[in-house]
Specification:
This protein has 169 residues and is of the alpha/beta class. The protein has a single domain, classed as P-loop containing nucleotide triphosphate hydrolases (Rossmann fold, 3-Layer(aba) Sandwich). The chain is 46% helix and 12% strand.
């Protein structure tokens, strides 16, 4: 059975861009995790209020349901900032892999600031993402990627990794 992949990282790392390209390359559905935030969470983010564990609990449950509803390979974009979040998602999809787009705060802020003003996530929340991030480096089933590398190179690395028989990240 093909493993599903979560494209993860802080705001501005390129989750949506990689997710779209990866879903095409792997010939599988894409689930945009941001589409499953509650109206209350969306409102909080638009007002510059960082989400906490309680805000993310139902969201993670919904993402787990989405993973279970797609037993075939699927690409899911999700910040997955904490180990407990990743573990919860792993329970929903055995063999789940995480493509971690590592980026520094300066580049993340530049990217988020360059987005359209109607975007859900304001630049004022970038620092809170780094504060919440528990790096997945060293966890099983995680590939660490340079978020500032060319997209085609990142896609190629993830496709090679997800289609290989080993889990050497």
């Amino acid at each position: 059975m093909a493993n599903s992949v979560i494209v993860m990282g802080v705001a501005g790392c390129g989750k949506s861009s990689l997710g779209r390209a990866l879903a095409v390359a792997l010939h599988c559905p894409l689930i945009e995790g941001d589409e499953f935030h509650s109206a209350i969470s969306n409102d909080k983010m638009r007002r510059g209020i960082a989400l906490d564990d309680a805000d993310r609990a139902d969201w993670l449950d919904l993402l787990g349901e989405q993973l279970r509803a797609h037993p075939e390979r699927v690409v899911l974009t999700c910040s997955a900032l904490k180990r407990s979040y990743r573990d919860q998602l792993r329970l929903a999809s055995p063999g789940l892999k995480f493509a971690f787009l590592r980026i520094d705060p300066v580049h993340a802020m530049q990217r988020v600031s360059a987005r359209a003003s109607a975007h859900l996530f304001p630049p004022s929340l970038v620092a809170s993402q780094f504060e919440a991030l528990e790096s997945p480096e060293g966890e099983p089933g995680v590939l660490v990627l340079n978020a500032t590398a060319p997209l085609d190179q990142i896609v190629e690395a993830v496709v090679t990794w997800t289609t290989s028989t080993t889990d050497a990240a």
